Amino acid sequence: MKTETSTAPALKELATLFCVLFLLCTAAVEAGEEKQNEDLTSLDLATLMQMDVEVTTASKTAQSIYDVAAPIYVISSQDIRRSGATSIPEALRMAPGVVVGQIDPAKWVVAPRGFATQYANKALVLLDGRAVYTPYNSSVYWNTLDIPMEDIERIEVIRGPGDARWGSHAVNGIVNIITKLATDTRGGLASVTVDSEGGRILSVRHGGALSTNLNYRAYAKYLSQDDFTVASGDAGLHDRSALRAGLRLDGEISGGDRIVFIGDIQSGRDTAIIPAQAPVPHYDADEWSALVRWERNEPGRVNQQAQLSFDRLNQEIYEERETLDFAYQVQLPEFRRNIWTIGATYKRSSDVTSPALRIVPARMTQNVYGAFLHDRIVLSETSQLSFGSQFERNRFTGWELQPNLQFLYKPHEQRSFWASVSRAVRTPLRTEDGFNFEFPIFPGAFGRFVGNEELKAERVLAWQAGARLTIRDDWFVDIAAFYNEYDDLVMTSAGVPFFEPLPPPGRTIFPQTYTNSLSGHTRGVETVLKGRPLPGWDLAVSYSLYSQTPWSDPLGFGSVAAVEHQFQVHSSAAIVRNLEWNVSLYYTDGLTTGDVPEYYKLDTQLAWKPVEALRLSVGIRNALSPRHREIGINSIDVPTRIPRTVYLNTSWQI
Amino acid sequence: MRRAGILAALTGLAGAVGFSPAGFADEAATRREDQLKAAYLFNFVKFVEWPASVPTDVLTVCFVGGEGVHDALASGIDSKRVGPRRLAVRQVQESASATDCNVLYLDAAVVPEGRVSSQDRLPILTVSDAKGFARSGGMIEVFTDSNRLRFRINIDNAQQAGLRISSSLLQLAASIEKAGPK
User: Fold this and answer.
1) How far apart are CA A572 and CA A535, in angstroms?
2) Any CB–CB contact under 8 A between B29 and chain A?
3) How far is it, in rounded angstroms, from Cα A650 to Cα A607?
4) Cβ contacts of A31 within 8 Å, gap of 6 or more
5) Would you call B23 and A385 a contact, using CB atoms and an 8 Å cutoff?
6) CB 3.0-4.6 Å disulfide test: which of A67, A285, A503, B86 passes with A63?
7) pLDDT digits (tens, 9 = 90+) for A67-122
């Protein structure tokens, strides 16, 4: 189902939008007061000590958010605390331009910029620099990433393809989860959360110094969750429980070199039903991982970074997988205005897929080799140009090229405008490459998914532009617009039905083959406004608009669902000393496929700190609706309804 | 195909290099560091007690060098209070003339390495970002570690000058130094 697209309208659209943004922003700033300095003296020392000297980390090097030529939203640990989010996908709801839908206690969909299907597969998710998506279906097993929320320093959500330094697989976005340094989590912390839907989370952690230059943090966490009800009103069967522990070491060796070690182990048990087969009473969801990273950063010199990680996953219902990942990058000192960064990556991923899934071949080892080049050119005191490309060789499609060009104009320390164009690819999944999965249609007839070894990678050409500015010292505005052109999107297309005589009495097969059959475009705008209307009252508002070429798959499997409007308001107010009232309201438009209607989600929390070391909070999630569905299901899972939940959390620093 | 052509052309343009000033991201970072240092300075002052003989209706913070930190602290100074006391900032040429200051901030660039005079036991809180400040005659040394601003306190130097540093501030220090060369 090809639709015609042409370059000229796209460029014109984007150029006009850019000019309008620029004029609007300049006008707004001229109208307001121009105060250059951010006054930090009103903050207490404990807060100041948690602040970065350099503001955000994007592109793996520290830089101010005004220097980032991409739509980035930073979710801070304070945002996470105020939202009461007990898992990473729940925290990701706060990012604009991302659809987050919960399916059941173990599964979420996190889909930036459209393609909000159950197996959303177009985002690169990194946990402390380690990619955590699985090549099996390119999505993330969120149920094995239950790190304690208190250990998260921040989550950077970048929509659209990142630049060459991020790595591949970032077709529509990057979720970069960064945990706190061991030096920042000294002492003990115990946290208990219970809720009205049978959720229990207990975590303890302790950090300290092993020697002058070596700090550690160790934690243990237990969680359990009863399932939500299914659409029919019956109790669901996706109960889950998990036990997790981890250790982090941060060390500094002579000469300013830094070493980080992060090890985690999680063992969990989830229950599930697969209707086509006998119900599976429970399945294991275990993972352990280890990561070592070495960094050498000195301003004006050669900066290097090397990282090696290993991960062993057992998601019994789908696969067992071992991943070895190595990445090295070096940033050269500025030479004639150019700052070059070069890197190389190697990833080895071996899997054994569950026989019930009929992946062909059932076991596979993939080696992916990559390299990247990136150059940042300082054109003048207020503008810079970056370009680069990622080169990667994978088993299914050979070499892939992902170039990227970015421009940044920063006339003022707290005002910047950017534009970029990037090409990104998504390589075929294990299921798309070799699959032999059958499902019944009517007696004697079965549908069968058939893999396609000749499949090409999906491609996107993303045109983006945006602006970022601080108005009147207290307000921050961030606008980003995009226009994505997609080609070779993978969909199933019906093949000619045939009769299979064996085993007797034989049956009719309706094959569904994966083909690169779709092209089209998507566009949208994401806006954020954050500020402090009154002392002690933080407010954030964001609105995301999305529109896509109408495209669908005839059989309904893999229909491309999207959400066209999303709106959020977050308010955090210090009521009296030590008492904080947090409210978040989310509006999510109905899915374009019609499966799920629009819904409002209201979360509210009252937090009390009677003493510095103790934080008590009570809150309600989904206060407005007793039960609602959030996302469409494209498989044989049973859709559940997300309930209203009352929760209580105690956090105690020892 | 046309799209790829445009992309290639734009990339080709990007290859043209010219003459350049310093990277502008560094300026923003320095500004922020100065603002953080000014905020720390303001907080330090809140946790220090001067001897009763020193009039402190106005707390005077003097700077030798460190214009960025001076400016950051000076902005909006009328609204800044330490308890009931007002704050005043001054730029001085050298530490010797700082006799009527309550606090003296020394920029690392103006502190001769290894030689920090202990202000002849005058009740002046000395703060600096010079390396090793706290180990020699200085009282509070500010430094950056893992992208965060931290500080070390030399409690003996402060006591000898008649200053009392609250335990709340001592608890937050990265380290406490004692004694040191005179």
Assistant:
1) 11
2) yes
3) 10
4) none
5) no
6) A67
7) 889 999 999 888 999 999 999 999 999 999 999 988 888 888 898 998 877 667 78
Picking from A79, A78, A115, the residue whose alpha carbon sits closest to that of residue A98 is A115
Asked if the model's pLDDT at residue A10 lies above 50, the reply is no
pLDDT at residue number A57: 44
Q: pLDDT for A142-155, tens place per residue?
A: 988 999 999 998 89
Cα nearest neighbour of A38 on chain B = B35
CB count, 10 Å around CB of B113?
11
Q: Among B20, B37, B47, B59, which would you mutate to test the A interface (most chain A Cβ atoms within 10 Å of its Cβ)?
A: B20
A-facing residues of B in 120-179 (CB < 8 A) are 144-150, 169, 172
Confidence of residue A299 (pLDDT cuts 50, 70, 90): low
Helix axes B67-74, B25-46, angle to 10 degrees: 60
Give the DSSP letter of residue A149: G
**pLDDT, tens digit, for every residue of A570-614?**
999 988 878 999 999 999 998 887 778 899 999 999 999 998 789
ipTM: 0.75
CB contact under 8 A, B172 and A378: no
Q: Do B35 and A250 touch (CB under 8 A)?
A: no
Backbone angles phi, psi at A204, to 5 degrees: -130, 150
DSSP characters for A185-207? Answer: S-EEEEEEEEETTS-EEEEEEEE
Is A39's CB within 8 Å of B76's CB?
yes
Residues of B whose CB is below 8 A from A379: 18, 20
Q: Are A194 and A648 in contact (CB under 8 A)?
A: yes
Cβ distance of B39 and A48 shorter than 8 Å: yes
Q: Which residue in the set B25, B72, B144 is minimally distant from A37, CB to CB?
A: B72
Size of chain B in residues? 182
Residue from A543, A545, A542 nearest A522 by CA: A545
**Closest of A321, A301, A305 to residue A313, by C-alpha:** A321
Q: Min CA distance, B123 vs chain A (Å)? A: 23
Residues of B in contact with A45 (CB under 8 A): 40, 43, 169, 172
Closest among A137, A130, A141, A179 to A311, alpha carbons compared: A130
The distance between the two most distant Cα atoms of chain B, rounded to a whole number of Å, is 82
**pTM for the full model?**
0.77
pLDDT digits (tens, 9 = 90+) for A377-416: 999 989 999 999 999 999 889 999 999 999 999 998 788 9
Determine the Cα–Cα distance for residues A310 and A587; give it in Å rounded to an integer.
Answer: 39
User: What is the bridge-based pairing of β-strands A645-653 and B81-82?
Assistant: unpaired
For Cα atoms A272, A277, A278, give the angle at the middle one, nearest 5 degrees.
70
Mind spelling out the 3-state secondary structure of A53-118? CCCEEECCEEECHHHCCCCEEEEEHHHHHHHCCCCHHHHHCCCCCEEEEEEECCEEEEEECCCCCC
CA distances from residue B63 to B40, B97, B102, B174 in whole angstroms, order as listed: 14, 11, 11, 24
Q: Does B5 touch chain A (CB under 8 A)?
A: no
Residue A36 pLDDT grade (very low, low, confident, very high; cuts 50, 70, 90): very low
In a mutational test of the A interface, the residue from B1, B7, B10, B61 whose CB has the highest number of chain A CBs within 10 Å is B7
Question: With contact defined as beta carbons under 8 Å apart, do A478 and A545 qualify?
Answer: no
How many residues are present in chain A? 654
Answer yes or no: are the C-beta atoms of A170 and A632 closer than 8 Å: no
Res B174: pLDDT: 79
Bridge partners (DSSP) of residue A58 are: A61
Taking contacts as CB-CB distances below 8 angstroms, the residues of chain A near B36 are: 40, 48, 51, 53
Q: Please check whether residue B43 touches A, CB under 8 A.
A: yes
> B148 and A53: CB-CB below 8 Å?
yes
Q: Which residue of B has its CA nearest to A382?
A: B24
Q: Note the pLDDT of residue B33.
A: 82
